[in-house]
Design brief:
Aspartate Aminotransferase, domain 2; three-stranded antiparallel beta sheet; 12 helices; globular; 2 domains; binds pyridoxal-5'-phosphate; seven-stranded mixed beta sheet; alpha/beta; Aspartate Aminotransferase, domain 1
Amino acid sequence: MIPIAKPIITDKEKEKIMQVMDSGMLACGQFVKDFEEKFSDYIGCNYGIATSSGTTALDIALKSAGIKEGDKIITTPFTFIASSNSILYSGAEPVFVDIDRNTFNISPDLIREKMEENPGIKALLIVHLYGLPCNMDEIMDIVDEYNLILIEDCAQAHGAEYCSQKVGTFGDVAIFSFYPTKNMTTGEGGIVLTSNKEIMERARLLVNHGQSSRYYHEILGYNYRMTNIAAAIGLVQLEKLDTFNKQRQENAAYLTDNLNNLEYIEVPQVPKNYFHSFHQYTIKVEQREQLISCLQEKEIGYGVHYPIPVYKQPFYQKQGYDRLNLPVCEELSKKVISLPVHPSLSKEDLKLIVETIKSFK
Ligand SMILES: *Cc1c(COP(=O)(O)O)cnc(C)c1O
């Protein structure tokens, strides 16, 4: 079986975890502090606040950026549910804008249209889907013109770059996830990054029950803290992230070189000056069900990211999105399929994936 995702855990992670065990400080402590510093340095932000997951990081990011009940926030419908759920956690309202067919990311042209219709919109929550950065020149023009708060969901884009600048450094605040399927892991975990001191200070309070000093609670907060055990794994994984990403890119290049000329599928495109971190290698195919049968027969893992646009989910339908129709994401949700691209694939694995897709039809 070739899995769709596989974390690479070696003796180095195990040794670091044992250091935590021996220290007796299992919860939040020095390892978390080190991880926050190293990860925020790596991305290029002044501050990092580690969290228990990418989802809790999103919740904190929006609240610390000042998102409040009733605010309207533009976002993409073609993502994991956590992105827009975080808007609901703040009592704010997601305004879904359709995606670009080639990049799978939210369409800057359609954001502009929506802003012209509704200039009261307060923020923009973008997702660099599959590890491909959004078009940041166009996004930043809109953000500047309308004075929007920009939140970057980088849960799939550790180390991805737009014009040599890492994603996570463009907005007011950004989040990453360290779930085991992502480009690097801490088990469960996440982080909020910002270079804005006020946002950092609010995020620090929010993740830790609003405590500014022991048992003194300034605001309503949560326990969303990362553990030292998770941070220990993250410290080792971070050192390997560039190597992991390079391997993902090489695997993606191999798939693209060999699948590019098949007329019944469309391989992912990487525009010039984009550094794609290939969290997923996602192709478009008309006959997805048949392709899935072939992959299953050869025991090749796959994923459908995502089969249902967020606003089509039952919970969102009940929230009043039942009349919304965004044609591009609806069409692509029926055509996309992700193939294994993770760094533990062997040459034989890659060959089998290529042969299976070539023999399909
Ligand atoms: C994984 C993911 C999240 C949530 O991260 P968790 O760590 O699983 O809570 C949020 N947004 C996107 C785009 C993701 O892929």
